[in-house]
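To fix ideas, we quote verbatim a fold written out as tokens:
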Amino acid sequence: MSFSVATPIRFAATASRVAVTDGPILILHDTTEFTYHRVRPEPVGVIGQYPCRSPTYDRRQLFTVCGLLMHASLGVTPDGLPLGLCAIKFWTRTRFKGTTELKRHINPTRVPIEDKESLRWLANMRQSSAPVADPARCIHIGDRESDIYELFVTAHELGTHFLVRSFVDRRADDGTQTIIAAMDAVPGQGEHWIAVRGDKGQSSRADLTIKYQRLHVLPPSAKQKRYPALDLTVIRADERGTPQNRQPIHWRLITDLPVTCVDEAVEKIGWYALRWKNRAPLQDPEIGLPRRGCETPVGRAAGQSAGAVLHPSAAGVLADDAQPDGTHSIPTPSLHPARDPPARSAGQR
């Protein structure tokens, strides 16, 4: 059976499983690249141009990569039990020349979401929420790429919810401060600790200070006439002290869900840690897609006992220098300041 024929069947099967479950449904969204070596890339498509060093010339050249992109949405229970595929989208790219130069002259935030690839986040949110009788059960989870104000507004319009890792330092309250500044002024409201393992296998304990605050978040300056301000909850986990042989953990989530205590904040952190389960369908031979290579700490954790380390499907959300080591703690991915891009200013995205 081809993938195009099997997909509607999978969606129907997912809907039937959701119908017989109770409680919230976590929808894990993620984008994956599939690359291929082809003499003629046209039948497959291309996904981008990347710099590489020529073997004959001592200079960097652009190499066109053959492949396709996939944005998939997987439904799971809060315990991590997969319910099935909820939405999926494939595409390739055709235009690359001048893209970087164009960004110097055009503010990307002024470009309508309908003209961006980011529209896939909104489309999958709509598609994956539709089969659920009560969209309020759905909690859409995404990485920092999904920190898009249009996604927040779409969730509000659909009556569903979201939990994403914050990337944009948006303006808050009366507009005189940003999210980061507002959270800096909030005192620590609780403590939580996790066992982490560095990239060389060394184990250590991370003592985290947990903060959470309900903020009035404003839309980007270029979109204030189109979108309303929203009341959202920001959750922050900061490691106390300076650990040895790894970067400290600093992590920020944003959600429209209410958080009234530290236990609820830690619960949301655990939900986000399940995001790595969205990689599991890529290894399903029935889908007919190539397996994705292991590029994260999940490769090291996969061979360990499930009773000794974090489940491999959750370990992948951790930063390069830290991963949970004990089942007694909730996994908390860290923000790697040396490798992760800085937060965007309040006027972006």
